[in-house]
Predict the 3D structure of the following.
Amino acid sequence: MTATMRQAPTATRRVDRYDTARYPFAEAVAALLDVPDLARLHETMPPGEGTHGDQDTPAHRAFYAGFDAAVRPLYEEYLVREVLPLGGEDLCVQAMPTFRVHYPGLTAVREYHRDSDYFHQSGVLNYWVPLTRAAATSTVWLETAVGTAAYEPVDLEPGQLLCFDAVALRHGNQPNVTGATRVSFDFRVIPRRRYRPNGRRTVTNNTRLELGAYFMLLASDGSFDHRSAADAGERS
């Protein structure tokens, strides 16, 4: 009798493209932060003493404070025109995307993890959108398949994004030795029919992982329920 090789479970991981002229996310964020080059953000807006660079820098505070006026219109247009048609049904979408800055010499996200470790439910997909070149030690490292504990860098340019099952696939960062800052944002999406409130809150800032807080409703007709926006400051 010959042994049958068990294959690792599959999970969504794909690279998509978007039109940077139609969705100039990088330009909008650079203008919001008042910096000429996001890849040199460390020169004009350094992380500060004693920070690991994840969610506790002046750049993060500026992004979240100015998001609604400077970036939300683009973000919501992208959700309606590019994400909604993929499913054609009501979606729960992250009300405010999570801003990431991977400074030279720092790790940004300090541990390899699955989002299920932080109470996110099965069915959620992550969209990771780099606004600068992301490569080698400045990009996200993603498990090659569920449970393999083997990782590879996902090298992307602005105009590309990674859609992946972060609930099932471990991912994390390496110490950034590229000499450039990587700036990105990411957001989570789950079909409304699969969403189940679980009574949990985010680890970083205690936001409820529910519609009306972490998530807002994007209906199949392209309309938003913005009641969630007032309590949408997720940072993890």
